[in-house]
Amino acid sequence: MVEATHPAHDTWVFPEVGEALFEALRQARPARIVLQVPAGLIRNATDLVDRIRTAVGAPVVLGARACFGACDFPSHDEAPRADVAVVLGHAPIPNVPLPRPTYFVEMRETGGDPSRLADLVVDGRLPSRLGLVASVQHLDLIPPLSAELGRRGFDVRVGRGDRRLAYAGQALGCNYTGAEAVESVVDGFLFLGTGMFHPIGLAFAVDRPVWSLDPLQGTLEAPIDRGALIRRRQLTVALARDARRWGILVSSFGGQNRSPTALALQERARARGREAEILIFDRLDPRDLEGRALDAYVNTACPRIALDDSGNYSKPVLTPPEFLMALGELPLEPYRFDTYH
Asked: Right CATH number for 114-224 from 3.90.1150.10, 3.40.50.11270, 3.60.10.10, 3.40.50.11850?
């Protein structure tokens, strides 16, 4: 297993749902457990509730709302009587305090033949100086795949990110500093995992080609068109340059709340002769912004709201760096990803 940074106080990490987790929970003697499950695992959520309840002998409640990451943990208001949380499919974010003792079950995946996957990379003619990045489920594949690629003449780099990342090589939707740490010494990046969420975020964050390798399906996707991503965002910035009245969006979630950033952006807007008001929400819905006398928004919550969901909003929604571009305080190039630190 890839080595982690030291977990936060009252945080425990397990690779899978099993006896080690159950024994740790039994030792904790919880009065009530809240289980949080991401969208991809909800089909089996009720079975997991039964397994934990039976094994531990404590009541278990299931968080019903969608979960987007380790920054989006169950609050006291959502589960006021639960004194322990079990979070599936995510790694802890070391610098984010949690409201209760939390047991992270990372659902590590051991599938994927490193030799066969390395052959796919060779056949795909990827650059020999290559950075590896993975979702938490596939981090254990990094060492054996690195070794196989090394035997095929690749110079593989795996970067250690900042204090928000628990593991070297790890990807978070809001933080790719592990990749940024080795960007200057590689000519491309290979993401290990499923779906396009992380490869797209990685393409925004680094000015290098990004390929995506699905270890389970054994498929290698063509590199993402970073230029097209950046041009769309630059167009959104251009549309917002004449906005006079801004809404600054702030999340109340503990892992996403950037109130100091919002206040600083409000000061920058007013210094430039713009009106700017702060709007606080827990889970943002495009309907919440309808009918407001505002011209554009800057989002200080998850940066992927602006980057991935902008088509759902009738007014421009920018990230903080894009907002400074719209004010003329930053140039359009180079593009700056809104990294959470």
From this structure: 3.40.50.11850
